[in-house]
Design brief:
The structure is a homohexamer.
Chain A (H helix, E strand, L loop, with lengths): L1 E9 L4 H11 L5 E7 L2 E2 L5 H20 L4 E4 L7 H7 L4 E2 L2 H8 L6 E5 L5 H10 L6 E6 L10 H17 L5 E4 L8 H10 L6 E2 L1 H15 L16 E2 L1
Parallel strand pairs in A: 1-2, 1-4, 4-5, 6-7, 6-8, 8-9
Keywords (chains A, B, C, D, E, F): Isomerase
InterPro entries (chains A, B, C, D, E, F): Asp/Glu/hydantoin_racemase, Hydantoin_racemase-like, Iso_Racemase_Enz_sf
Family (chains A, B, C, D, E, F): Belongs to the HyuE racemase family.
Chain lengths: ~240, ~240, ~240, ~240, ~240, ~240
C-alpha cells in the first residue's frame, strides 16, 4: 500500500528522519513518502498551533487524494486535522494519539502517557474524553522538554525512563504510550531499561502504532464512515 | 463591557443581522461590534469547515486582543477555534455550544438539541463527551435545512417545532437547545407554540446564552485558566 | 429584574452583609432583597441541616412567588431545597453549587472546589454525580473552618490560598470554585495572590456566579422545565 | 432485630397494612413496628413533598435512636431524608430505592423501574446518577396512577404488567424494580404473569428488599460510615 | 433455606473452617453445606486460576441443582464462574465481590478494597467496570500476602489495619471491603481497631455479605433473569 | 511472524475453513496454523460455554508458548480465556471482540454490533463496560441464527444486511462490527450492499481485525503488561 505521511509543520528538516523511521515500522509492500506543510507552524504544542496547522494539513490531504494514496498518517500526537480530513478522503487517516491509545488498551489495564510539556495536558485529557476512553487513562506525565528540544536524545530517554518508572511504581500505568511523535527511535531502549528495572511493561510508539494501524485498516478494506464523516456540502471556501 | 462578535464565515452579509440580534440580548452598558472572516468558508457545517475557519477566527482574536475587548463570541454552535483562542487572549471566549448547553443543564434533566443537518451530529456527540456532559444529552434532532437555508424562517420554525415536540413527547428532552447560531429570532415563538401544545419546556437560544455568559463571566472577573490554556511558546508560524 | 435572596438559616444577622455582597455582583436594573428563614438551622454543614432548612426555604419560595420576583438565589453551596423549589415557582432558582460549577467548566479543564469542612465532602461528591459532571471535578479541598468561623477573614483567606495553591501545583485544579457562599469578598484577593505566585488561575465566587446566572437566565426568558420539575399534585400538607 | 418502619406521610391509615406487609418479608427474630409522620404530606410524589417530609422523618429518626432500634426503613422509593438520617443514627437506614436497585443489579444486566407518575422520573434519573449506577438503568416506566390511586389493586397490577412486558420486549429491562413502596403485595402475581407470558424475569419488591437489606446489614455489624455521614456539628436548630 | 457453598479450590482442608464461618453468618432456618472442587487449583489469585476453576465450579452447580439447593455461594472474591452458573440454575448464585461491593455502596461514598496480592488488582478494576460501579471505588490496596499465607492471622490483621487506616486517612475510602474470602473472622477486630484509632468506618466481610445476600434474595423470591442469563442451547460438550 | 489460531470448540471440521480465511487476511511473511480444542464445547453461545472452553484454550496456549509462536488468535467474539492467556504467554493474544471494536472506534462515532443470538447480548454489554468503551456502542443487533446455523450463508448475509441497514437508518450505528467470528467471508458483500443502499459505512470483520492487530502488535514489539497480567504464582493445579 502507499502511505502518505504528513509532517504537520513548516520546513523540510524532519522529512528524511521521519521517512526513515516510518519505513522502519512499515511492512513489506508498503511504500512511504512524506510531506511537510506549506503553511503552518514550526511545531505543535498547543491548540493554537493545531488550529494554524489544520488548513495546511488539509491542503496535503487534498493532494493525497489526488495522488490516490491508501492511507494517511498525520504525524502529531494531538491528531490535528484528522477528523476534518476523514470528511474529504476515502482512505484511513490517523494521527498519533488514537491508534497508539487504542492499541495500548489491549495490553494493560491503565494507560500512562509520557509527553513533552504541561501545555498539552488539557488537550490530551479532552481527547481521552472525546474518544470515550478516559476511564482507561491512569496518568499523563511530562518530561518538560519542548518538541524542538527532543534533539537531545539522551536527556529525552533519561526523562522518559524516570517518568515511566514513577508512573508504573505509583500504580498509575500498566502500559505506556509515548506522547509525542517526535520521540523517535527510543521505544525499544525504554522498554529494555524498564525491564532491567524489573518492570516488564510494554511501551507503544505512536509512529509505529499509526503505520501498523493504517496497514491493518487498509487490509480490512475499511474507510471513514460517511454517517460520521459526511462529505462537506459544496460552498465557497477561501483560505 | 465591549463584546466582539466573530461571525466565522466569509462575507459581511450577516453582520448587521447578527449585531441587531446580539444587541437584543445584551444588557445595558454592553457595546457590541461584529466582524466576519477575511479567510474561511461561506458557512460551517462540518469539521472540515471548522478547520478552515479557525485561522481566520484566530486572526480576529489577535485583533480583539489589540482592541482590548472584554469578551468574544464566536457565533457558531460547533465552538470553532474557541479553545485555541483561549490560549492567546485573557478574556472570556465562547462559541455557541458550551454556554447554551451548560445553561440548559440547570433547567431540566435531559437536554435535547435541535440542529440543522445530520452532518453535524457526530461533531455534537463528540463535543458532549469532550466537555464531559454526554450523560445529560437526551436527544440530538435535525431539521434537515442547511445553514444557508435558514433564511426560510417559517419552514425553520415549523420544523424546529415538529422536532422539539417529538423529542419532548418521546421523553428524550426536558429542555431544548437550538443547535445552530443561525436560528435567529425564533426561540420565543418556539417556546410559545410548545406551551400552547401543553409542554411548558424552556428553549435556550445559543446567541443569547453566549452573550449573557460573557457578561456574567466579565462581571465575575474570570479569565481562561493558564494551567489549561497555556500561552503557546514562541516559534515560527506562517499561515 | 427583581432577585430574591434566601439566606437559608435562622437569624437576620447576615442579611445586610449578603445584600451588600449580592448588590456588588448585580447588574444595573437588578433590584435585590433578602430574607432568612423563620424555621431552620443556624448554619448548613450537613445533609441533616439541609433537610431541616428545606421547609423554611420553601416557605420563602411561596412568598417569592406571591411577590412576583424574577429569580431566586438560595445562598448555600449545597443547593438546599433548590430542586423542590423549581417545582413550585416559574422563575429561575439556583443555589451556590450549580451555577458556580457550570460556569467554571468553561474556564478550565479540572475544577477544584475549596470548601469549609470535611463534613460536606460526600455531599459535594454526590452532587457532582447527580449533575453528571463528576469527570470534571479534579479536587475537593477543605480549609477546616466551620461556616460560623469564616468571620475570621484573614485565616479564611490564608487557608483558601494554601489549599488552592496546593491543588493547582498537584495538577488537580485548573479553575477553582469557592465551596461556601459564606466566603464573601475574598475571591479577588485570592486570584491576586495566586497570580503573584505565578498561577494565572480563575476563581469562581458562588454568589457572583448565582446572581449573573439568574440575570442571564431571566434575559433568556427561560424557566424550570415542567417535564423535569412537574408541579406537585394537590394534597394535604401540614408542616 | 428491631426494625422501625417510618411511613413518611401524615395519617395512620397505612400503618397496619404496612406492618402486615413488612412482617411478611421479615425473618424470624425480627420485630417490626411502624410510625407515620406528625408533620409532612399525605403522599410523596415530588421533590417538594420529599423536602416537606424530611423534618418529620428526622423527628422519627431521633425517636428511633432513643428507642434503640437496630435498623430503619423509610418506606418511600425516593429515599427521602435517608442520607440526612444516616448522619444522626448509628444503625442502617434505607429507603426504597437503594436496596431494591442494588439487589436488582445482581440478577440481570439492565434494570427497569416501573413507577407511578411521570412526576418522579427526573428524581429517579438523578438518584441513579447520584448513586453512580445510571449505566445499569435500562428503562423507567410509569403506570400513570397516583400513589393514592394504588388502592385500585387490579388496575395497578394490570398496568404494571403491561409496562413491564413492554420494557422487557423492547430489550430495555432484564430485571424489574417496583418503583413505589405503595405497590404492596403484587410482586409475586406480576412475576407469575410475566413467566406465563414466556418471560422468566425477576421483579424486586422495594419493601422486601429494604427489610432483607436491613436484616443482612445488621447481621454484618455495619453502620453508616462516619467519614461519609459525619455527625452534624452542634448549633441552634429550630424547626 | 439450603445454601450450598462451593469452595472453588481442590482439597478439602478448608471445608470445615468455611462451614463454621458461614454458619456464623447464617440466619436461623438456614442450613449450610460446602463442597470443594474435584478439578481446579489450590487457590485463585489470577484470571488463569479462575479459568481453570470454572468447570469444576460448574460441575458443582449442576449437582447443586439436582440437590435442589436454594442458593449458591462461590466463595472467591473474583466471582469465578458465577455468571456462567446463573445460566444453568434457577436460584441466586453469588461470589464474594458483587454482594460485598453492592452492600458497601449504601454505607459510604467511596469504597476501599483491601486484598491479598497485586496480581488481582486488574481483575478487580475490570470487575468494577463490568458491574458499572467503578465511579464508587476509591482505592484498592494490597497486603502482599498470598491466599495460602492468610493462615498467619496476626500478620494478616496487622496489614489489613495498616492499609485500611492509610486508605481512610488519604480520603480514598469511606467504607472498606475485605478483598478475599479467605480473610476469615477478622472483620470485627478490624472495625474495632479502626474505631479505636478514631475512624468509625464499616468493614464488609465478603462471606457474610454473600450469605445475607442469598438469604435476602431467597426471601424475595427472585432468580437470575432469563433475558440476561439465558439457558445455554443444547450441544455437544466434553470437558 | 507465526500466528497460532485457536478455534475454541471441539472437533476439527472448521479448521481448514478458518485457516483459509485467516491466510486471506494475513500479510506476507505471516505463517498461520490452527488448532481446535481437545476439551470444550461444540460452539460458544453463552458464558457457560465460555467457561467450559477456557481450560482447553489454555492447554493450547501452553502449547503455543512451547512452539514459540509470535501471536495467538482465539477465534471467538466473546474473547474466551484471552485475559487468562495473557498471564501465561509473552506474546500478543486476542479474541474477536477487542481488536474489532477498538479498530471500529477510529472509523465512526457509534459502533453497531450485529451478532447471532440474544443469548450473547448481556455478555457483549458487560464486555463493553469491562473494556470501558460502552459509551461508544450504539446498538447490538441479532440475526437470530445459532452459530452452527451460519452454514446457511445466504440467510446469514440477508439478515446481517437487514439488521445493519436498520441500525444505520435508526442512527444507532456509524460503523458496524460482525459480532461472531463464524461470520466468515461476508464482510465485503455486506459493505457493497450497504453502499448500494446509499450507506457508505465500514464493516469490521473480527477475524481480519484480529490478524492485522496481531501483526501490528508483533511489529511494535509489545507484549502483555506484567503489571496487569501477572504470572500466576506456582501452585497445585489439576484439571
Amino acid at each position: 500500500m502507499h502511505i502518505r505521511v504528513i509532517v504537520p509543520v513548516i520546513g523540510d528538516d524532519l522529512l528524511d528522519r521521519v521517512i526513515e523511521e516510518v519505513q522502519g515500522w512499515a511492512g513489506p509492500g508498503t511504500t512511504v513518502d512524506a510531506v511537510s506543510l506549506k503553511r503552518g507552524t514550526a511545531s505543535i504544542e498547543s491548540e493554537y498551533d493545531e488550529a494554524l496547522a489544520a488548513p495546511g494539513i488539509l491542503d496535503r490531504i487534498v493532494e493525497a487524494k489526488v495522488d490516490g494514496v491508501d492511507g494517511v498518517f498525520v504525524t502529531c500526537f494531538g491528531d490535528p486535522g484528522v477528523h476534518a480530513a476523514r470528511e474529504i478522503i476515502d482512505v484511513p487517516v490517523v494521527g498519533g494519539y488514537e491508534p497508539a491509545m487504542l492499541t495500548a488498551m489491549s495490553f494493560g489495564e491503565k494507560i500512562g502517557i509520557v509527553t513533552v510539556l504541561p501545555n498539552v495536558l488539557p488537550m490530551l485529557h479532552s481527547l481521552s474524553r472525546r474518544y470515550g476512553i478516559d476511564n482507561r487513562v491512569g496518568a499523563i506525565r511530562v518530561i518538560d522538554l519542548p518538541v524542538l528540544g527532543l534533539e537531545d536524545r539522551q536527556t529525552m530517554v533519561d526523562r522518559l525512563y524516570e517518568q515511566s518508572l514513577d508512573a508504573i511504581e505509583s500504580n498509575d500505568a500498566d502500559v505506556l504510550v509515548l506522547g509525542c511523535t517526535g520521540m523517535l527511535g527510543v521505544v525499544q531502549e525504554l522498554m529494555n531499561r524498564l525491564t532491567e528495572a524489573g518492570h516488564r511493561v510494554p511501551v507503544v510508539d505512536p509512529t509505529g502504532a499509526a503505520i501498523t494501524w493504517l496497514e491493518g485498516s487498509h487490509r480490512l478494506g475499511i474507510f471513514p464512515s460517511r454517517s460520521t464523516y459526511m462529505p462537506p456540502p459544496a460552498k465557497e471556501r477561501s483560505i
